[in-house]
Each structure stands twice: as C-alpha cells, then as structure tokens.
Amino acid sequence: MAGEMRDLLCWRGPVSVNVFVIGSGNTPLPKEAFHLAGMVPDAFLPFPLLGQPEAIERLGLVSYDIDFDDVSLDLREYTRAVLRRVCADTRAVAWAAFEGTFHYDELLTDQVAHQVYGYCTTGAEPVVEWDTAALRGEEWRRLITKARAALDALLSASEIRTRKSRTD
Length: 168
What we know:
Strand order of the largest sheet: 2-3-1-4-5-6
Oligomer: single chain
Structural class: alpha+beta
Number of domains: 1
Number of strands: 6
C-alpha cells in the first residue's frame, strides 16, 4: 500500500477501510459478506447511523468499519470488492472515506471529495483512487460530483415513491 495512503488508513492502529451505504436498509450485512478478494477482516464493526434525515432514513444508511491488523496489505482491490458487494442486491450508493469525515450535510460534496477514496452505484463498477494527490484534483471532484448526482437521484426516487404510496 502506498505510504501516505497507509498512514491515512492506519491512524488508529490497524488498517481501517470505512464504507458507507445508502439504500440497503438499516440492517447491516453479516461479517461473512466481507470475506472478499481473498481477505478476511480482523475486525468488523457495522452499524446503522443515528439521527438520519428523513430522506435517508427511508432508504437506510449503514456504516462499516473493516479492520486488518496487517498494515502491509494493499487494500485497493478489497475496497473495490466491498463497494461492489454493498451495492449488489439493492439500488444503493456507497462510498469509502477516511475515518471521521462523515457529516449528513456533506455527503459526497466538493467539501469532502478529497476525503473519499472510492464509490459505487448499483449497476456500475466501483471507482477507487489510491493516489492522495489525485484525491485533491479536479478530475476526482468531478467524479465525486457524479456520485453525488446518483445519490440525489436515489433520494428523489425514494421521495416520489413515498408521496405516491401516501396518495394511493
């Protein structure tokens, strides 16, 4: 794993891949679902986030902290596999971001684009960036803007379904 990326992912000791997914409900997947890319995490901490805004709560938001004790692992492919997995069975948007970067008002916005190192939308291949200079670049911000647009579309579709079910 590139040195700078390793430092960012190891800030609390083990290598920690942090993934968020909106659209898969509030029930986390079992730990076995994260035995991917030939790797088995040493620690797996799933949890639905509290205080979800209504638009997000309808779809569910789960965060996964996935830790590996071996800090020499290159987790780029693992991150890609996790993003693919959490988007596989439902219409969802998922992203991997550095620990401590989550805030409801800034989901996949320009303000946090440099702190997001991967994303996936259902039906698309995951995108993962391991170059920290690229994470600060205009091209990455443009890609995160596309992911945000997918999230907005997911939230809008949920709102439309909710309004329709209230009038039926």
